[in-house]
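=== Structure Prediction Worksheet ===
Name of assembly: unnamed complex
Input type: mixed (protein and possibly other molecules)
Chain count: two
Listed entries:
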Amino acid sequence: MIFGLIENGFYSLFALVPGLEPFAMTRFLSFAMLLLILLIRPTGLLGRR
Amino acid sequence: MTRGATKYLPLLPVYLIYGVLFLIAEGMPGVWQLMAMLVFYCALGQAFNIFLGMTGYVNFGYVAFLALGTYGMALSIYHLHQLPLGVGIVLLGLLLAMVMAVLLALAVGAVALRLGGAYFAIATIGVNEGFRYLIEGTKMWGGSEGIIFSRQLLDTFGRDVANKLSTFWADVSVMIIAALAALITLHFIRGKIGYALMALREDEEAAKVMGINVTKYKIIAFVTSAALAGLIGAMAWGLKSTHVFPPEAFDVHYTVEGIVIVMLGGAGTLLGPVVGGLLYGLAKYWLMVILPGFQLLIFAPIIIVVVVAFPEGIVGVLRRELKGTPLEAFVL
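=== Predicted Assembly ===
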């Protein structure tokens, strides 16, 4: 749910910026989020530390 | 023979194989493309082996370095073709390819090398895919349409020279890069770096406790492997095909092929990736001819057989069998 909200929200934001391809940028964002999660909290929000 | 010269004996079979491949391709008509494919796989395997084979870490985003190398060559030729640089434009392309791959490796290494095991593998997939979508999303470097620079190459060199560059010299350059990768691998295996990488591959925590700076050696191996990948991408993909297209350039199956080649031949060995590249390339070519469309099916059985039957690879088994014989000095 959280991922879906972020992705949809950012798709709309990227669509407003001229010169950006929103679908590709949203895909980029999802992989950037993956990297961030792996670095900060690889067990996830509800997982044990 | 002096000790110094003896150190280079393991390079003999590697260079002999490349020499024979070149002579066969030059002497027999219609075989050049097969030779080019085999040399590409050997080069890919050798470059990949420097990181995967020596550290045990699997970088699933390795193809991003090849892609960046391709972009380096493409950008050099596309934007600088009007300058009177002649063949310097190709050399600049090679330099740019290497620099771009190294910069990405440093950026990725600083982040992903802090992770271990499966997390590192997942992170590197993310880097590859993320970088591809960044290029497409920001429309930089041609975006999802990529860059076609055949016209610029023709304008700079004329039809005959451009043709020769894209066919003969691109493939010979890949062979030279493969030979360079072999020399670097030997230097790593025989030197302090090799001992450190072997220690961290066996047990990273124990290596740290022994005082080995594992991060430094991982980054050295990672960046070296990436630099070689950039050079290979620049010549084997950039100069040879004269275009770069993101979905092709960042296709993860090249990374999987690299993994298969290294594991089949023998991870961490010098001769292993060459043997793996030859066997894999010949098997794929043979299947392309007799069962077109099914050649990719060989990945899975190869990986399964290697992991189950001989995890040290073909050259690993060969080294075991040749231990104590005079041939041992030539197989590393």
